[in-house]
Specification:
Order of helices and strands: EEEEEHEEEEEEEEHEEEEEEEEE
Shape: elongated
Distance between the termini: 11 Å
Number of helices: 2
Structural class: mainly beta
Radius of gyration: 26 Å
Number of domains: 2
Length: 303
């Protein structure tokens, strides 16, 4: 048995850090060989929201008089929890001046929020009634766009791809609740409506996949496993550390995969997400050890 090492010197320099190429010093004939992951060291540094995933857009409305203004929130690439998304929403509302405060400026009132509902294993969207003028005891910021002529809630739109992160259906649109009519909103995805305040709460209908790529799938050239798709999959890594920390794993038993007989100049290792698409890794600091052995070596299938 012998070991080959993939590290950051083997990374294809395309900015993705998900493809590594190991070049043999000389062409080698690999016949009746088996290969397995021996050791993994890398950092948990792949995002759940990014431009390349097309899941970084959210919109909301604010009505001035009778004119509806739609604001687009573009979420910077990053690894977000629901609280982080809500903080970003509030930051954008501050930038857009679509809020008002108590007279001391210590409490801000935003048109909507995203919160966790752990009892229901869901994400909850709350939209709040926007009055026609500043309520008693509140002030508006400099540059405030104005109030609507009719009380109503902001309309929140959740596009495809972002919807899976927070568990709503693709293209979800909240109710405008114009004039705060008695009864439930037209959208069927609501949890409740507080008639006196006009607050409407909506609950996600599927389990939120806050990190849709919670595993790293290792795909290696030279493998033909007829029982997997793609046939080059040799291992799956599930990080058990916090974001930014080092993932270190030594498989308790090697999962040996038969290599395709042939002459090799190189081996190519790809890191894929749960959807089997290339996974963009932020930190290139990684080391992977792969073991290769003959089929007749003793203890095949274990260390």
């Amino acid at each position: 048995m012998f070991i080959i090492v993939f590290n950051q010197t083997n990374i294809v320099p395309d900015g993705q850090n998900n493809k590594l190429v190991y070049k043999f010093p000389n062409s080698v004939n690999l016949k009746d060989k088996y290969i397995a992951v021996s050791e993994i060291s890398m950092y948990y540094s792949w995002f759940n929201i990014a431009t390349i995933y097309s899941n970084n857009i959210l919109t909301y409305t604010w009505t001035v008089g009778s004119t509806i203004i739609t604001y687009t929130i573009t979420i910077p690439d990053g690894l977000y929890e629901i609280t982080d998304l809500n903080n970003l929403i509030q930051f954008n509302c501050l930038n857009n001046k679509t809020y008002y405060s108590n007279t001391t400026g210590t409490v801000n009132y935003y048109p909507f929020e995203l919160i966790l509902n752990p009892v229901r294993y869901a994400v909850q969207l709350n939209t709040y009634l926007i009055p026609t003028s500043a309520p008693v005891g509140t002030i508006t910021p400099v540059g405030f766009p104005g109030f609507p002529t009719t009380i109503q809630n902001s309309v929140i739109t959740i596009p495809a791809n972002l919807n899976t992160i927070i568990g709503f259906r693709a293209g979800f649109v909240s109710d405008a609740n114009i004039s705060n009519p008695i009864g439930s909103p037209a959208t069927t995805q609501y949890v409740s409506k507080a008639q006196s305040t006009g607050t409407i709460s909506y609950l996600s209908t599927t389990a939120p996949q806050v990190q849709p790529n919670n595993s790293v799938i290792f795909s290696l050239s030279g493998i033909n496993n007829p029982y997997t798709q793609p046939s080059s999959v040799i291992y799956s890594l599930n990080p058990n550390v916090a974001v930014g920390q080092q993932v270190f794993q030594v498989p308790p038993n090697f999962m040996w995969c038969k290599m395709i007989d042939g002459t090799y100049n190189e081996l190519r290792l790809s890191l894929l997400g749960n959807d089997l698409n290339p996974l963009k890794i932020q930190d290139p600091n990684m080391t992977f050890l792969l073991a290769i052995r003959d089929k007749d070596e003793s203890s095949l299938g274990s260390k």
